[in-house]
Amino acid sequence: MQRFKKTESYKIKQAIFVFIVALVLLAVFLVLTQRTLLAQIVFIVGVAALLLFLVRQYDFLLTLKEYERAVIYQFGRVNRVGGPGWALVIPLIETFKIVDLRTQTLDVPAQNVITKDNVVAKVDAVIYLYVNKDKQSITNSVIEIDNYKHGAELFVQASIRSVAGSLTLTELISNIAKLNEEVKKNLAQITASWGVSVESVEITDISVPPEVQDAMSAKAAAEQTKLARMESAQAHKAEIEAVREAAESLSDKALGYYYVKALEKIGESQSTKLVLPMELTALVASIARAARHASKEDLEGVFKDYAPLVKAYVHEKPGKAKRLPA
């Protein structure tokens, strides 16, 4: 059997081997009976041919790397595990199979799954697993399953379809880590009897139809708009509360001061209209009526008379200013 290849038919090899063995036996018989030079030559040629055939056709001496082991069978039964280093295999009596102990990376083909809310999604996954280094696990990885890599791949495909079918699309996307852990746990339970350990199972991609993506994007945008409006309303409410609390703590004189400062600010603008409070409007009307029936000297007197009232209005509390003369 050639290394790293499947079991071959031994009919031709056995026929050649039987012929060479017969030739060697004939040479031995001639040597024992005739003791001639020809018999010796035939014997030597037969032995040399047998050795060459064994060396050419069989790996009777294996050189196994640090990460390789050989499960060696003797007459079809597991006899031992060889490696690392050299391992002797007896031709025609023993056969072997090489086991790689390195972590194996399996790319699981994309699976079409139907979620709980009847959305078709495509899921890609990758598996990382390895054969345990103890001899029993190495043996089990060969005799308990034909191909543990293919078996793990098929099991993960079935697990993904089963788990994804119990979740909605939103749950599937938002719980990838949980899905990975659950699939890994299920796979580890079945590979334990194979002598194989599961390092990790990772969902690498979840693809959904474009129309579903658009609907999810619109929903997310609506949620963000709603949150932004709620935040703006909360900020406006806080601002109103702050102004209300500040206004409640102001005295009447302080309010009057801010009132006059606001009028001054309005007066600095280029507006053609100025809206005055009713009290000041009445004051201006009184002055105007007095001015219509007075001379220039009388006007100056009127302004002198009303100046203290204006000052009193500004400095006194609203509603307590002196009554204006008609």
Characterise this structure.
- With 326 residues, this protein is an alpha+beta fold.
- The protein has 3 domains: 11-100, no CATH class; 104-212, 2-Layer Sandwich (Tetrahydropterin Synthase, Chain A), CATH 3.30.479; 252-315, no CATH class.
- Helices cover 56% and strands 19% of the residues.
- The protein has 10 helices and 8 strands.
- The strands form 3 sheets. It has a 3-stranded antiparallel sheet with strand order 3-2-5, with helices on one face. It has a 3-stranded antiparallel sheet with strand order 6-7-8. Strands 1-4 form a two-stranded antiparallel sheet.
- Helix 1 runs antiparallel to helix 2 (37-57).
- It is rod-shaped, with a radius of gyration of 51 Å.
- It starts with 10 loop residues before the first helix and ends in an 11-residue tail after the last helix.
Indicate the radius of gyration in whole angstroms. Answer: 51 Å
In the CATH hierarchy, what is the architecture of the largest domain at level 2?
A: 2-Layer Sandwich
Give the oligomeric state.
single chain
Secondary-structure-derived class:
alpha+beta
* CATH class designation of the largest domain: Alpha Beta
Task: Count up the helices.
Answer: 10
CATH homologous superfamily descriptor of the largest domain = Band 7 domain
Largest sheet: 3 strands, antiparallel
Whole-number mean pLDDT: 75
Gross geometry? rod-shaped
- What are the low-pLDDT stretches, counting only 5+ consecutive residues below 50? 1-10, 319-326
The number of domains is: 3
Helix content: 55-70%
Our measurement of the CA-to-CA distance between the termini, rounded to an integer number of angstroms, reads: 130 Å
Structure summary, number of beta strands: 8
